[in-house]
Task: structure prediction
Amino acid sequence: MNIIKTKDETRAAFAQLKSQGKTLGLVPTMGYLHEGHISLIKKSRRECDATVVSIFVNPIQFGPGEDFEKYPRDTKRDIGIAEKEKVDFIFSPEAEEMYGKNNLAYVNVEKMDKVMCGKFRPDHFRGVCTVVLKLFNIIKPDRAYFGEKDFQQLIIIKKMVKDLDVDVKIIGCKTIRETDGVAMSSRNKYLTEKERMNAAVLYDTILFAEKEIKKGLRDLAEIKKECLDLLKANESVKNIDYFDLRDPETLDELQKNKNITGSILIACAVYIGKTRLIDNKVVLL
Amino acid sequence: MNIIKTKDETRAAFAQLKSQGKTLGLVPTMGYLHEGHISLIKKSRRECDATVVSIFVNPIQFGPGEDFEKYPRDTKRDIGIAEKEKVDFIFSPEAEEMYGKNNLAYVNVEKMDKVMCGKFRPDHFRGVCTVVLKLFNIIKPDRAYFGEKDFQQLIIIKKMVKDLDVDVKIIGCKTIRETDGVAMSSRNKYLTEKERMNAAVLYDTILFAEKEIKKGLRDLAEIKKECLDLLKANESVKNIDYFDLRDPETLDELQKNKNITGSILIACAVYIGKTRLIDNKVVLL
Result:
């Protein structure tokens, strides 16, 4: 496995691969790899000739007061996991290498970046889109793998790629869950034992909403209200940023019976103690 | 010469070129080609194995009330010129082909897009950056050629390419002028005979500022005031958006004696009758 720190080395390594007609899969991560990342890596290894994992805690996608500084990092452990999974390359640049001293160019996917998490993290998706486009331009992968756990991120990146004619195929991969349903996330590390136990309330509530929808109920405001009550009843839930029922393609909020076509995205962002967790599920009607 | 209208045809044609190891030069235009464009084409033909001229009057870089509708178009004439100049490909998509029905992704080069023309045309550079990045992603040129006449555009595109790690070399090319100094522009077509004559006041005033600077004068506010007076004295000058002295790399406004390092950009946007014209010169100290 080759560990690369600079853009120039990356370009040289991957130009060589390309000239041999090999396909390249990219798994962009912020490190602290877990089973979710491993499932992306495995998928890339099945579908591409070579796989690169980028490890970069991207400063510009964190807002003031968010957890950039304390975001869990363990490069040594990550390298061990990547090696075990037979990753071909790790790209782990420093922030200075990625952004230089005076970065001014940013990508926005307007409107979609203002709802759900975007409402509470105003520049988050600008930061995500910008770093992802940079990674694509540096690495030039054929395919890139993203978890459905960050559903809004996945949809926004797909939209960016489509609207800007980026020549990379975006592959969404199923959320990997613990046995109690909690979605795998590096941020789960922040939870106390009790909070970790109570964190199951996110997915439990999503499954409750799914059941209501599958029963044929379409009063989405009522379902939402019930779900908020379920969340609030949990002693570890300290704040609810949102619990939404939306169109999974446009992220538009769904109205009772109106514009519901084929599927419903159930998504939430909830503080378990001081830790902000997100989860979602797309229900096919 | 091959005239291509769709992204898919473009990708197919240029992938073939690339696989043959040929270099590709792109000259992005809004059509109505003049000597300025021809100089870009000639440079591309000297430096690249194949040259593509894109012709696309980009709706999203025009603001409400601007001249998108009446912008001069003459595709037949453009094709004749391109053929004479031995251009290999013309890419001239329809707006629907470029943007589809619900474009949401945009590129911004922040701060630099708020000054000079950006102050008076708020979404202009967002539109320029977005279409240029799309053209780069569709065509994948090795080099792209832009006139120095649109200096702010050139600098902003260079910044976008650097900050987003776009793998295209941006080549700035000298402004081509009529014998009286007026910079070639498709918009000169709007001018009456008298206005066309008086349009020389832009470059005359820039040359006056240059002379003052070359004399060693560094009271930039005073020079600017004199230049504004010169412009106002011209009977065809109906409005002055700006006449600025700036750092040609950062576009920061220069202060008397302060932070003047090596060169000064003199740039202006002036209404000659109802026609907004721009011009500039970089003075090396």
